[in-house]
HU family DNA-binding protein (Wenzhouxiangella limi), 90 residues
Amino acid sequence: MNKSELVDAVAEEAGLTKADAQRALDATTTSIAKALKSGDTVSLVGFGTFSVKERAARSGRNPATGETIKIKASKSPSFKAGKGFKDAIK
């Protein structure tokens, strides 16, 4: 399912127009991203938790040359599914 198909499904399920469903989906994803950027976690009971994981700096290897390189520390978004969501897809 891509974004436009998700918008169609939300519009049908919630009885919204496609434009309203699009705005709602965009607002949701933007709000989650802003919360994660500010260091918060977003917990949706029954669905899951969005958080930011820190990756430590490490050394790696360039596959083309075999040369050792340093990989910088980084932050990565993470999602952990909740029990209700896991049970819904079994």
In short: The longest strand covers residues 48-55.
